[in-house]
Every structure is written in C-alpha cells, then in structure tokens.
Protein 1
Amino acid sequence: MTTVLTIVVVLVAVALFLDLALHRALRAPRLPGTTEPADVGVHAIAVRLLTANDRRLFAWYCPPPAADRRRPAPALAAVHGWGGTADGLLPLARVLQAEGYGVLLIDTRCHGRSEDDTFASLPRFAEDLSHGVDWLRARPEIDAGRIAVMGHSVGAGAALLTGSRRRDLVGVVSLAAFAHPEEVMRAFVRTWGVPYRPIGWAINRYVERVIGHRFRDIAPLSTVARQHAPVLLLHGGRDRVVPVRDMERLRDAARAAGCAVQAVTVPGVDHEGVDPETGTSVIDRGADHLRAFLAGVAPVRAMTAAPDDLAAPAAARAGRAGPVIDEPGRAPVRA
C-alpha cells in the first residue's frame, strides 16, 4: 500500500511540475510599450476598459479628427500579436485617423500595460477585441453600424474568430494570420527537439484543455469560412514565420464558403510587418489596399443614424452601462 501511495504521489508531483513548466514555456513575453502616440504623429487618449474575468485592459483610443455625435465616424478596433503591444500598431492609427476613422488599439490580457490573467490564448485575444468593439459602440462620436476589426498574427486569428461570432461588424482585416494552431504548435514543439508523436500531440491536447477550445474550432482556416462581413487578408511576402501559403489557404477556404475576401501579398515584408532592408512597414506598403477596403465597407462620409438618436447618451443607446475611461489627472469615470 505504501508503495502504491508513493507512486501516486510521485505521479501527481510530476503532473504538477509539467503543468507549471508548460504554463511557463507557453507564456507570452510581456514587453513594455516604448512608443508614444506623439512619436508617430497620432492624437490618442490612454483608456482602460473591462474585459472577461473583470480584467482591465489598456488601450490607445485615437478619436476621429472631426468627432461629432451628430455625424458619427466609422472606427476600427485592433489587437497586436503574441508578445506584442498596442504601441506597435500606432502607425496604423496614423494612417486611419488621417482618413477620418476612430481607432482603438488594445493591449490584450497578459500583454503590455493590461492586467494579467491565468493565461493568454487566441480565444482570449478575441474576447478582449470584442470588448473593444463594445467600447467603441458606446462612444457617441462613433457610428455603431460602421465598426471593423483588425489583428496581427495571433491577433489576426482573433479578429477572424470575432468576425465569425459577431454580425454587427462591417469588415475584418487580417495581418499575417496562420492557418491552423495545430501546425503552429507542432512547429513550436519541434524547437524543443521532441517528437510530435506522442509528446507534441499530447502537449497540444493539454493546451486545448487549458484554453477550453479545440484547435479545429478556433483555427483561422475554420473561422474564415464563417465570416459575416468582408475580409481583407494582408501578408508579407518575406514572412518566414507564417508562410504566404497560409494566406492562400485562408483565401481559398473563404471563397469556397461563399465569403467575401480579398488577399494581398505585400512584397519584401516579414512576419513583424517590416521590410528588413528598408524598414518600410506593411502599413505603409499596404495602406492603399487598407484604405480601399475600409472605404468600401465603412465609408467615412456616410451617416446612418438620426441626429436625435445620436444626441442621446451613448450608454442609453448601447443599452448598458458606459465603459470605464481613465483620463489624465482624474480617477476612472463612466462615459
């Protein structure tokens, strides 16, 4: 009996050790934000908003240049990739704010200046992005009927997952999305020098259990075929992390499902969205495609709500309490 008990204790200890080790190995690196909006010529306000599990997210809100509740503007909510921050998307805000859009750049949980949670995952990126959409919908200067979402890498997968769940979006923009998390995890485990079967396969099943979702259900290859709005796929031609072939597979899956999709390869750009030789970003080189796409799904000049409705409190129009905003020098207040 003592021997059996000892074996059980050892197995439990090993399981707990492996659980802790995997959590540490799969944890996203938390990098501090190093760029301020003014550094790239963007007018932005630092805000905090609530997400799932009562966690608070940091975000840069870049209001439309001609904010007017009687003529609300379209907007875009965006999230970074794994280990990234909202600061990295500020060049995007510069381009879109100049065109008349409002932009919300979100630090997802466990990233940047947002609060921690038990873990980060693609579905949690999507939860945070969706809360960002709700935040924008409650703003009086934003047209709730003209909001799009965007993401980079894992964030792109989150944008596609959000687009498959919500019917109130007008467009989804994906930067360097991978096709399937099973393939990404298989490549990741390979860097540890362990065989995919049985060890890598078991790790993937463990990750599925932790995040509460099967990879096949949240895979961009699946969600891109369940979109309710047009999709723009942008991908760097020199991406060595996620091959361009992944974008082509996503495009083909969307078309096969009858979803509206555009796919653009941006020459010379790597996975981080930069040309390593010139420093040119995917935002700069893909700006015309992005502008044209958003102009088609969320034109700046259109007006879709009556002035009397827009004059009503934003929270009342949204049918819920207003979002929490942190303003410089003030305690958090309700919008």
Protein 2
Amino acid sequence: VIEVPGFGESIAIHPVGNLAMAWDHRAFDGAYAAGFLSRVKLILETRDWSSEV
C-alpha cells in the first residue's frame, strides 16, 4: 500500500527479483560480500534502464 497525493492510499505492484551470491568464505568475509550486493542493488534501483534500451 502506498500513499498517492490527492487520492489517499493505493495498492501498487512493483517488479521484484531475488539477488543472491555464493562465495568461498576462506577468500573474503561476509561483510565484503554484503557491501558488494548492496552496491549492485543500488545500481539496479537507481539507474535509468529505459535509456539503455
């Protein structure tokens, strides 16, 4: 449910995807992997993909 100015609350449908990663824990720790996934998530959410097509 989202708030729409002038109309009140509304149900919104958004595309959703799962992002996962597997790695060798001996190579680097989970904090590094979490930072990498956070950066990928940020890029996917903020980039203007319509201009790329």
Protein 3
Amino acid sequence: ETAIALQLEGDRTRPGGGRFRGFSMSEDDVENYAGQPWVVTASDGGIAWPGDGPVHPRFYGTFPRKIRHYALTIGALTLESAIRAQTSLPARIMGLSDRGEIREGNWADLVVFDLETITDQATFEQPHQHSTGIDHVLVNGEFVVDEGRIVMALPGRVIVPRNGGRPAS
C-alpha cells in the first residue's frame, strides 16, 4: 500500500512520475508486484560471460521468466500485460516515443519467441544458461539472435532519456 501511495504521489508531483524499486525476495510480494499495471520489468543484471563466476539468474532469465512463470503458469498477469511491462511502459517512462511499440517509424527492437517453449533456464547453481524459446532478436532492425543462435552483431547504442525522462505523450 505504501509503494502504491508513493507512486501515485510521484505521478502527481514529479515529471516522469514516481519511481519505486522493490527488492523483495518473497514470492508472494513478487507475484503481487508482477501484476500491477505500473510495474516495469527490469533486471539490474549487467554483462555476464560464462566463466566469469557466479551471477544472479536474472542476468539471463528475467524477461522470459515474467512471461512463462508469472503470466502463463500462475496467471499473476496477462501475457499482454507482461509484454507491455517489458516494452512500451519502460519506453514511455523514459520518454522514448520511437521505441517500445511495433509502429511505423519506430526503431525495430523486436523479440520473436515461441509461446510454448519460452522458459528461463538459469539457476543459482548454473547461472550462465540462456533462456529457451527465443527464436529471433532484432536491435535497431538488425539481428542479434537469429534462429536461436547469437549473431556477433553490435547494433545497440546508448539511449539517453528524452524530455528529462518525462513520459512521452
């Protein structure tokens, strides 16, 4: 309740809205947050290479886990809401009006996945495991994953929030 109250107050008083970052390890809390329409899916993971030592499984599996576990398996939210939390909602919050939605004129940042097989595979014991069911990934219109295989392309770039991070209209 406190997080929601702070979010609403932030939306009212701060350009770009309020921001809250939850660190709960309680599955009940995570399930509750997952279904909230104002919750963005994000990972605080960075770059991890096999052999670098242990990392949190979220480095590899945050987004597929939200789809498979929270949307499709336990129904904490709809598939559409899970996709929105990973695409258009964060783009809107960051003021990136040309990203986050499939629309003419937008950058082609796309993930093509198999709804039947998308699953996070990383565990604490074996964290360097790529998720399954991700067939293609395009960044700025260029393949970085093609037919499930990583392509050594680097089309990404640093994106600076526009409008001071205020939501795009």
Protein 4
Amino acid sequence: MRHHKAVLRGTAIALTAFTAVALSGCSGQASSSSATYSPDNVKGQTVNILMIDTGSTKELKDVYVPKFEEQTGIKVNVELVPEAGMDAKLALSLGSGSNQYDVIEAGAKNLPTLVASQWISPLDSYLGDATATPASYTAGFQPSLLKSLENDGKSYTMPYQVGADLLYYNKSMFTAAGLDPANPPHTMTDIVAAAQKLNKPDQGQAGFVGRGTREGNENSFSWIMMWLLNGGRWLGDDGNAKYDVLTTPEAITTTEQYKKLMVDYGPAGSANYGYVEAQSAMQQGKAAMWIDGAPVGPPLEDPSASKIAGDVGYSALSGEGDNYIAGAVWGFSMVKGTKVDQAAWQLIKYLTDENVAVGQAVSGKSSPARSDVLENPDVQKAYNPEYLAAIKDAIGHANSVYSPVIPQGTQIRGALSLALSKILSDQSDIETSMNEANDEVKKIVQ
C-alpha cells in the first residue's frame, strides 16, 4: 500500500524543494574537531544520543543504528523520550553540564535557547572537512533550508525532518454525516461546523481530536496551528516581533474554537491528549478529524495499527493573509563538550544521509528533509497522490515563525499552555485565562 509521507517544513523557502521535485555551556572544546577524521580513530568509541520517541526514531534505533554500529565500529546508546517531556529533558540534562549526551534531536524552535545557552556546538568545521564529510552529503539539502537554520552565520543542526500541518479526516464518517469527502472543510469556521455534524458521542465517535495536554506545551501547538489560520502572527507587518498577542481578536476567536472542538466535539478526556493519543483516536475510528503536523500522519495508513487505513482524507487548510500554515524542522545537533566529537558527527551525518532518508520515506516512518530523496523513484512510488496534492498546497503557505523564536519562546508557550489547560478543564473562563497569560508574557519578554 502507499504510505502518506510527510514532508514538513521549517520555512516556506525550504519546502519549495518538495513542490519542485514531488509535483525538502561547558568549557570543554572537544567538539571543535581538533584532529582530522579517520575511521580508525573512532572505532570503539561510544556515542550517547537523545531523541524524541516517535515511529521514525524507533526505526532509527531498531534498524539503522545497528547498521551504523556494524559499519563504523562505533557503539551507540539511544534514549527515546516522549515529545511532551523533551523540552524539560533538554534543559535538565544539558543545563547541568553532565555530558550525559553527545547528540540530541531538537526542533528549530529549540535552537535559539540551545545556542544562547551554549549547550550545542557549531558544525561548520565538520561540514568543511572533506575527510569527514563528502560534498554529496550537503548537496542533498536545499541551501535555503540549511541557511534558514543558521544562527549568526553558523550551522548548529543538520535537518532530519521537515513538514507542514494538514487536516486528516475519516472519509466514511464524512459520508455517513452527509458531508462530501471530496470537499473537506478548509477554514476554521468550516471545521467547527463539520465537527458538530460529525460528533456522535452515543456511537463513540468524536467530531474532532487534537492536542490538549499541557505536558511539553503540546496544547499550544494545536492552538497555534488554528491561530495562524485565523490571522494570528508573532511578527507584525513591519517585521517586528510582538509576543503579548494573546488577547487580540484572533487569539480570542481561536481559543473559543479550540475549546468548542476539544470540549464539545472531542473525545472524553481529550484535555490530557498528546499527539500520540490523538493519532490513536483517529486510527481506532474514534474521531473524525484531526489537525496536526505531516510526520504524524503516515501511521494512519498502517493496516497493522489503523482501522481506517485506506479511508483517510488529507486536506490543506486555508487561512487569513499568507504563511498561515505552521512549519517545523527537526534535526540533530552535537552537544558542546562531547569527548567523542568525530564519532558524534559520523552518527549525525549517517542519520541524515540519503540512504537512511530514502529507507524511512519508503517505509512511511519519516518525512525527510533532504530534497535529493524526493527524486528517488522508490520514494515517489511510496507517496499517495492525495497526500501530495495536499502537501503541495500547504507548503506554499508555511510559516517558519510559527513559534516564538527567542530564548524565552518555551516560556511564552508555557504561559499559553497553562491558560489553555485551565480553559479545557473549566478552571477559568477564556477572557480571564488569556489575560493572565498575556500579562505573564509581558513579564517574560521585559
């Protein structure tokens, strides 16, 4: 069967590659590459890597890391952490200077904090070393994507996944509710109206499912995706950032819609849902619609885990203005102070190289950031035409600044997340909660 591969995107420019092809502080200085790379120098070394627990990283651990170990003689210890706990894990482990990890997976949203805290090292010396990195490696990435991830002109991460959010929906449920699966809702207003028709709690069917948990600020991501569609932005028309925007008309409208979808038309207990639980609700036929990032979509088509495989619809959403789709990039970075920098770089390079990216694209486990992968015939055969049409539309409107890209970004989303949690649990009303969150944001950015 065809896998619905998600090619996400951290910037609008970065993902034009998909369109073109498919229709992209410690004091230790060991990570500055003090010696020329040699395979013999890294044999027997051990690299500790921290990754988010997803289907793609599990495949890396089970399939590709053993191959890497066999090829290089480097031992790799893998730790997987749920996305909801990743930000806290990074802050605790890297902030303590424990040298617990050598390589970490992190989102572009984390880079400002990681760089400002001097927790990760630039990768430019490795990229510029022909003995450690062949030219074909970097040639597989769109230059614009690599450029978009730079900080002060330096490269701190190698992109692994890119993507943009889509609407996933159950075609059979649409038909049963009198909705045309060939003409799904595109705006937030349409989605709320459709969710009302699709919601059948007496049949164990929710009209909508999304992220509701406060862990890892996951609920804020669902809210932000909707907020962008409604015209919300962290950057004004003048290009200047503004973060105390949680009481604007766009923010209040989004919060009202978010609450209605999650509380009135969502599964019982959805206030505690992360993307894993939302994905499962779709797979088990317990929810009719879901808005989320493209990398989490392929498992819906896995017949061994999903009751709706072959019955999934995909739709690019429409919003106010331009760049109304949340873009995202995930990559691998080297922890500052690692004592096995050359071995760590070989692992980073391997996990983001063409062979692994092609394999994961074909298996439907990942959404590779490499544009050369999209030219691979096996990968093109693995894509579903409906998915390609949706993602082609979505990536043309992707917004790289979907999350506050400042060191305080996680705190800002934390304030928003707390407010949403209170609203979903009826601890506070929308106006009070959003005002409190906005006041907290003002304090954070002072």
